[in-house]
Amino acid sequence: MKTTNILLAITLAVTLIGCKSLRVVSKDAVTATPSGFSNATDTISSADIKWNSFFTDPNLVALIDSALHNNKELNITLQEIQIAQNEVRARKGEYLPNLGVGIASGIEKVGEYTTRGANEKNDEIVEGKKNPEVVPDFMVGAFASWEIDIWKKLRNAKKSAYYRYLGSVDGKNWVMTNLIAEIADSYYELLALDNQLEIIKKNIEIQSDALEIVKQQKLAAQTTELAVKKFEAEVAHTKSMQYDIQQLIVVTENKINFLIGRFPQHITRSTDIFLQTPAPILTAGVPSQLLTNRSDVRQAENELVASKLDVKVAKAKFYPSLTLRAGVGFQSFNLKYFIQTPQSMLFNVLGDLIAPLVNRNAIKAEYYSANSKQIQAAYKYEQAIINAYVEVANQLSSSSNLTESLKLRTEQVNALNASISIASNLFKSAEADYMEVLMTQRDALEAKFELVETKMNQLKTSVNLYKALGGGWK
Fold first, then answer.
1. Which of 19, 180, 326, 357 has the fewest CB atoms within 10 Å, measured from its CB?
2. Nearest-5° angle of CA 205, CA 211, CA 214?
3. Among residues 278, 272, 256, 196, which one has the least CA distance to residue 459?
4. DSSP conformational letter for 238
5. How do residues 231-241 score in pLDDT, each as one tens digit?
C-alpha cells in the first residue's frame, strides 16, 4: 500500500512539474475597432436588410433565389455543417458512459506439459467426474466503462467541436453573402454589355451614314479617296468591337449559369432601364456592428474560442485520468449450468488512475502546438476585423466618388452627342474636314462606353458595400 502511494505521489509531481502554463489569448484583446467610418454618421447598418428587399429587379431576385438552392459550392458547404454537427455528437458521447453487451463461446485444451495441465492431470479423479480434455466455454454479459472527466478534458473537447460547428454555419453564411454579391455583379455586368452592344450598333449606323456621304462627296470631287478609306476603316473597327462584346456577353451569361448550378442558357434580364436604375442608398452604421454582421468575422471568432478550448484539452492530458470499469454476466462450460446463480454468475468492478510518466514529449508537443494555433487564430480574428473595416471604408469612398463621376460623364455624353450632328453638318458644308467628324464620333463612342462602365461600377459598389457590411445571409 505504501509503495502504491509513493508511486502515485511521484506521478502527480512529475505531471504538475512538466505542465508549463502558456499564453492564453483573450477575445476582448483583439476586438477593438474605430469609433466610426469617415464621412459616415449613421448608427443603423444596411446589413440588416434582407437580400430580396435590397434587390428590386425581379429577374435578378429570381436568379439569386435559384442559386441559393442549386449552387454547388453552397451545397458542399452545407455538408460541412453536417460533418461539424456529427463531430459535436461524437465528442458529446465521449464523456458519457460506454455500455456494451457481449456474447462469447469457445473451446480450450490445456497442454499436459504445462503447469495448469499437470495440476489437472495429477488431481484426484472421482469416477464419473473426470475433467474433459477439451473444455467448452460459454459467456454472455454486459460491460461498462466511464472516464470520469475530472479535468474537463472531454467537456472542453465537446465545446470546441460545438464552436467549430457554429463556425461552419457562419462559413456557410459567408458563402451565401459572396454568392449573392457575385451573381449581382455579373448581372449588372451583363446589363452593361447589353447597353454597350446597343451603343455600338447605333454607332455603326451613324458611321455607315457618314461613309455614304463621303462616297457621294468623293464622286462630286469634294473630297478624296483617303477620306473614304478612313471612314471604311472606322466602320470595320466598330463592327469588330461588336463581336468582342457579343463574346463577353456569352461568357458572362455562362458565368451566371454556373453560379446557379445549371448548363448554359439565356439569362432573362431588363436591359433598357439599366442607366436609369438608381443605386441603393446604404448606411454603414458603426464599425463594431461588423463583429456580428460579418459572417467571416464571426467564423474567425468561433475558431478563436475553439482554439482556446483546445489548449485546455491539451493541458488536461498531463493530468491523471480516472476510468471506472464494470461487468456482469454468466459463464459456464456447460449450457445446462449457464444461468445458475450464483455459481455461473460473474461480475467485476475496477478503477484505473493513469498518468503519463514516460514519453511525455508527444503530449508537450501537442500542448505547445495548441497554444500556437490559439495565437494564430487570434491574429486571424484581428485580420478579419481589419479587413472588414477596410472593405467598408473603400466602398463608401468609391460610392461617393462614382456618384460625382456619373454626373460628369452624363454631361460629357450629352455634349458629344450634340457635337456629332454639328460636325456632320459642318462637314457637309465643307466647313470641317473628315478627321474632325471621325474624331468626334470616336470620342462620343468612348464617352458612352465610359458612362455605361461608370454606371455599372456604381451599382457594383452598392452590392459590394452591402456585402462588406455583412448583408445577404439573413
1. 357
2. 150
3. 278
4. H
5. 899 899 999 99
